[in-house]
Amino acid sequence: MTSILTAAQREKLAKAIIHKPPYCSGTLPVPDGDLIIFYGKDEDARRLDFGGASEGALQHLSQTCEAATFGLNKEDILDETYRKAGKLDSTHFAVKLDLDTSGLLEVVRTKLLEGRKAQGFIHAELYKLNVYGEGSFFKPHKDTPRSTNMFGSLVIVYPTAHEGGALTMSHEGESWTFDSGKMLAGHNEARIGYVAFFSDVDHEVTLVKSGYRVTITYNLYFVDPPVYMSLSPSVSSTGEEFRSAFVALLADPTFLPTGGHLGFGLRHEYPLQEKPEGTDVLQYMKKYLKGSDADILLVCEELSLEVELNIVFEDYDDTVILPKAPEVEGIYLEENLSDYLRREYEAKLIGPPVDGTSDTVERSSHEGQVDVALQWVTDLTQLNVQKSNYTAYGNEADLAHAYGYIALIVEVGKLGDRATRATLSV
């Protein structure tokens, strides 16, 4: 008999997943010398102290910059109707500010990250210097991750007088504003503004009305700890509520009494294409989960519940799930995609196409036919999609598309034996 997750149980578990804002920001007092930069494209490098930079000095910096481009489909695009700003590559400037000794990298690690990620090691790679003068802006966009272990960006704002140029951020229907001009105004001591955010956050720089907004951008990466150190993972403060709710449900005799599988749609976007060749994307992604995605993974591991990233494919009438990403690009099929994946990759049928609101096991057209009675706690999202093109043969050959959506799948054991230490059989 299949255990059914009730609406009340689903709501309790879903509401316990806390989605922490995907950014942190503020101002940081620094020694006077940390406001100095050196820049130039030839032997005549210049020194600029933002502690008392004149209008002429800022204008020279702006004129030294090239027109800033932006990334689109792995290409650098120059379009001043979308982005108008100046930039210097990291080979053409140096900063006195040290992120480690200033404590800023530690602030970012503990404020932005959660759980074991907040205890781990991160690296900040110096990337660009940007100058936004009067009339400059950057329309909404996302940063392009340089690799799978790149998780975000850190932007330093120097204390120059400017009006406008606020950074607005949005993610999953919520929005936030970081107005460096207002935050840095009126301080007597040396101080910088900072904002760090995840790579999947949409953001824009609003129109600069006056002055110069000067920023340094760093790419943020997860890195492995030294071999002589080991870290004990711990659940984050936001993950504790989810853990408490899950523990209570596992003790509830009405909660999946015969066991079952739960699905959690990912809330963050990850660079699927940046994995090493020959590596399964799902296993590679797992160690770079962030935010509430990482909380769910860690809580389930601590509770001895088998939890894995799986990929979900929807066909005309069926939805199937696989523990590894299949090779679909360029194949020729004379059968339904779901039938092919079940035959060649041992994909498991979980029901008809997922609408994100109903349990696959409850739908009459597939009653008694599913291989795995997967029940969704949070909606399957389209943030992480593996898209493939293939040729489907019917009466004639047609170009078809396969979309694989990645989600966290948790196996729960029966009442009295909840732990599921064996490999997830889906």
From TrEMBL:
Gene3D superfamilies, sorted: q2cbj1_9rhob like domain
Entry's transmembrane regions: none
UniProt name for this protein: Prolyl 4-hydroxylase alpha subunit Fe(2+) 2OG dioxygenase domain-containing protein
A Pfam family the protein falls into: 2OG-FeII_Oxy_3
Listed InterPro entries: Pro_4_hyd_alph_FE2OG_OXY
Entries under PANTHER family matching the protein: FE2OG DIOXYGENASE DOMAIN-CONTAINING PROTEIN, PROLYL 4-HYDROXYLASE ALPHA SUBUNIT FE(2+) 2OG DIOXYGENASE DOMAIN-CONTAINING PROTEIN
Domain (Prolyl 4-hydroxylase alpha subunit Fe(2+) 2OG dioxygenase): residue spans on this chain: 128-220
